[in-house]
Design brief:
With 198 residues, this protein is an alpha+beta fold. It has a single domain, classed as Nucleoside Triphosphate Pyrophosphohydrolase, CATH 3.90.79. It contains five helices and eleven strands. It has helices spanning 2-17, 77-89, 142-148, 175-187, 191-194, and strands at 31-40, 46-52, 63-64, 67-69, 96-101, 105-107, 112-121, 134-141, 150-156, 159-168, 171-173. The model is unreliable at 1-5 (pLDDT under 50).
Length: 198
């Protein structure tokens, strides 16, 4: 019973702090996208990320959350994020409990307004990643990501990146993904949240 109660408490806390029905307003010329921040419940709360393949036209080889551009046949952004989760990870829509959205993040290089949805899996789902888009699926405990967080100022070809970075076992999370992760960690800010089955 303690595990079930802790899981319910976690989801309730996050639902209270997330936007249930986001209505983003992209600037002229911007495209709209949605990504999933997929939390996995277990002995310790973890999150899934993907390493993008090297041949993609945008953000090749970078660490990101599963997601993509909204398509005309998507009735809403929730549908976009569930479709992308199925296409990229092979995870069925019914497996994830979508809790709501964090504030939208603008990717200045690619001109995309991204709505980050937070979802929870009861356990690590059986995954069948799309080999065209996903080179690797990564899973990190939130506790370790919080400990690894640092602010950086990096010179890039397109300018200077000032923001959050996370060095994790040879993977560097930064950019828009880093900003989204920072926002999530700011919500999951008490020790009782890290262990979901204690």
């Amino acid at each position: 019973m303690a595990a079930m109660s802790s899981s319910r408490d976690l989801r309730a806390r996050l639902r209270e702090r997330l936007e249930p029905e986001p209505v983003p307003e992209p600037a002229p010329g911007d495209r709209l996208a949605a990504v999933l921040l997929p939390l996995v419940e277990g002995l310790e709360l973890t999150i899934l990320l993907t390493r993008r393949t090297e041949h993609l036209s945008r953000h090749a080889g970078e660490i990101s959350f599963p997601g993509g551009l909204a398509e005309e046949h998507d009735p809403e952004l929730r549908a976009t994020v569930l479709r992308e989760c199925r296409e990229e990870l092979g995870a069925a829509a019914g497996e994830v409990d979508l809790l709501g959205a964090l504030p939208a993040v603008h990717t200045f290089v690619s001109g995309i307004l991204v709505v980050p949805f937070v979802g929870v899996f009861d356990a690590r789902p059986a995954l069948a990643p799309d080999p065209y888009e996903v080179a690797e699926v990564l899973e990190f405990p939130l506790r370790e990501l919080a400990a690894a967080e640092r602010t950086v100022e990096w010179r890039r070809d397109e300018g200077t990146y000032r923001g959050y970075a996370y060095e994790m076992d040879g993977a560097t999370v930064w950019g828009a993904t880093g900003r989204m992760l920072h926002e999530l960690l700011a919500l999951v800010d008490d020790e009782t949240t890290w262990a979901t089955t204690a």
